[in-house]
């Protein structure tokens, strides 16, 4: 902006001199700053949207799969409406987390179908204070569900990567769960005895070595998938020296590698 600078000279004659006064420069934001803010907001919006999508899928799972499967324990239904099952699988599988099927986790391991987990847990009739060992706890979903019923849960996992995922999940959603590392077929004798041993997957035969880690009238639950037979959920009850096995319902669940039959070679 140009302004006259009027000064009085000799003889009282006013002389004008033009001077330039610079306006303060406008501050210009770095365009990358705007792009960064926009990207951050977009990611936040997308995260909220995904959370809503998963919540809607969770409610559909309960209403379309769980309730029609004769699962009427209000505690189980309430827990399955809030436990974020999608956090127990790889990002590429999260859109399928609430499908009516078991999902592959790698290494021959699976996240068990929601209906099977819910129905088997209901048949176990878990009460507050029960000591429960979850064998093959993996991502921690079943352990968190059982912990939500008030049980004292020990989660046993043999794979370090899956155990890390499971520990993270239960730290957020079921902090009372205790984790143990070791071979699944060995159970966890250090913290025995248990009122219930819950095998989160299929077995080729009832693993009787685990039965010794039960209290006198304790139960072992899982899915029996013997060759040539329709897989079936079961509960085995320890009564003194005997083991009574009760079939429950058909359940197509993959066998855990630790409980598969050893290959037989013929020559």
UniProtKB/TrEMBL annotation:
One of its GO terms (cellular component) is cytoplasm. Residues 23-33 have a biased composition (Basic and acidic residues). Keywords: Methyltransferase, Transferase. The keyword Methyltransferase applies. InterPro entries: PCMT, SAM-dependent_MTases_sf. It holds the Pfam family PCMT. It comes from the Bacteria. Residues 23-42 are annotated as: Disordered. The keyword Methyltransferase applies. GO terms for molecular function: protein-L-isoaspartate (D-aspartate) O-methyltransferase activity. GO terms for biological process: methylation. Belongs to the methyltransferase superfamily. L-isoaspartyl/D-aspartyl protein methyltransferase family. PANTHER family: PROTEIN-L-ISOASPARTATE O-METHYLTRANSFERASE. This is Protein-L-isoaspartate O-methyltransferase. It comes from Ameyamaea chiangmaiensis.
């Amino acid at each position: 902006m140009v302004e006259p600078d009027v000064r009085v000279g000799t003889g009282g004659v006013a002389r004008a001199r033009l001077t330039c006064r610079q306006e303060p420069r406008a501050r210009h934001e770095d365009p990358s700053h705007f792009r960064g803010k926009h990207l951050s907001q977009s990611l936040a919006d997308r995260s909220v949207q995904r959370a809503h999508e998963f919540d809607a899928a969770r409610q559909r799972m309960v209403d379309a799969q769980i309730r029609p499967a004769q699962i009427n324990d209000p505690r189980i239904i309430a827990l399955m409406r809030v436990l974020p099952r999608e956090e127990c699988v790889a990002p590429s599988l999260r859109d399928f987390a609430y499908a009516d099927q078991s999902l592959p986790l790698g290494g021959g391991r699976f996240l068990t179908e929601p209906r099977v987990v819910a129905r088997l847990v209901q048949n176990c009739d878990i009460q507050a204070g029960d000591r429960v060992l979850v064998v093959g706890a993996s991502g921690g979903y079943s352990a968190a569900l059982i912990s939500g019923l008030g049980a004292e849960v020990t989660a046993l996992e043999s794979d370090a990567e899956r155990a890390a995922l499971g520990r993270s999940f239960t730290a957020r959603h079921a902090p009372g769960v205790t984790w143990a590392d070791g071979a699944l077929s060995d159970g966890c004798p250090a913290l025995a005895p248990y009122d219930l041993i819950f095998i989160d997957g299929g077995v080729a035969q009832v693993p009787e070595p685990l039965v010794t880690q039960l209290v006198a009238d304790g139960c072992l639950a899982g899915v029996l998938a013997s060759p040539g037979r329709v897989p079936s959920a079961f509960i085995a009850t320890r009564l003194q020296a005997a083991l009574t096995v009760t079939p429950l319902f058909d359940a197509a669940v993959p066998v855990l590698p630790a409980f598969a039959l050893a290959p037989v070679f013929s020559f």
